């Protein structure tokens, strides 16, 4: 799971727990009986929020990511698909990785939503496929995702780029 910065990594024990207990939206990706990666997507109204798409290091740069992304777009046809990526920042140690990740999403038909989402420990740029999204849509999605009490403490701040 080194594909994600520390703030975005889900502990391995939590992944195993969620997968064993049938957490909705969690999918393990196999290609010809070989483990390729993990996807976690939740839906709210016409928004499919891709919390993460993780492709195994040994399977990167050979086309699996685009194949998986195309399958996601087919599975969620008619919905707006959003994903948060680390904001490109020339001062960041992983600047090249951030640019490469944004380029991947753009090759898959995503574009910037025009919004930054500030979550604990990081600023993320929201990418979108299949339409536009408003600040109100984003805030409503997060309200639904986190619920009342948790949402009060961890509600991300949404700002225009």
How is this fold's topology laid out?
Elements: H1 12-20, E1 26-31, E2 34-44, E3 47-55, H2 64-75, E4 80-86, H3 95-107, E5 111-119, E6 122-129, H4 135-146, H5 148-154, E7 157-160
Parallel strand pairs: 3-4
Antiparallel strand pairs: 1-2, 2-3, 4-6, 5-6, 5-7
Helix pairs in contact: 4-5
How many E-type strands? Answer: 7
**What's the Cα radius of gyration?**
15 Å
Order of helices and strands: HEEEHEHEEHHE
Oligomer: single chain
Shape: globular
Strand order of the largest sheet: 1-2-3-4-6-5-7
Uncertain spans: 3-9
- Strand content is 25-35%
Q: Tally the helices: what do you get?
A: 5
Mean pLDDT: 85
Structural class estimated from helices and strands: alpha+beta
Helix residue percentage: 25-40%
Distance between the termini: 28 Å
| Major β-sheet annotation | 7 strands, mixed
Provide an overview of this structure.
The chain is of the alpha+beta class and 161 residues long. The protein has five helices and seven strands; from the N terminus they run αβββαβαββααβ. It has helices at residues 12-20, 64-75, 95-107, 135-146, 148-154; strands at 26-31, 34-44, 47-55, 80-86, 111-119, 122-129, 157-160. It has a seven-stranded mixed beta sheet. A hairpin with a 2-residue loop joins strand 5 (111-119) and strand 6 (122-129). Helix 4 (135-146) crosses helix 5. The longest helix is centred in the middle third of the chain and has 13 residues, at 95-107. It is globular, with a radius of gyration of 15 Å. The two termini are 28 Å apart. The model is unreliable at 3-9 (pLDDT under 50).
């Amino acid at each position: 799971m080194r594909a994600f910065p520390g703030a975005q990594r889900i502990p391995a024990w939590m992944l195993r727990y969620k997968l064993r207990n049938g957490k909705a939206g969690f999918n393990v990706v196999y290609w010809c009986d070989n483990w390729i990666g993990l996807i976690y997507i939740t839906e709210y109204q016409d928004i499919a929020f891709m919390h993460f798409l993780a492709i195994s290091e040994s399977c990167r740069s050979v086309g699996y990511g685009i194949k998986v992304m195309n399958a996601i777009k087919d599975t969620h046809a008619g919905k707006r698909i959003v994903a948060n990526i680390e904001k490109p920042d020339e001062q960041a140690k992983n600047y090249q990785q951030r640019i490469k990740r944004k380029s991947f999403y753009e090759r898959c038909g995503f574009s910037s939503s025009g919004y930054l989402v500030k979550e604990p420990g990081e600023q993320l740029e929201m990418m979108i496929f299949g339409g536009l999204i408003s600040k109100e849509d984003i805030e409503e999605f997060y309200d639904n995702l986190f619920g009342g009490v948790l949402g009060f403490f961890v509600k991300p701040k949404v700002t225009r780029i």
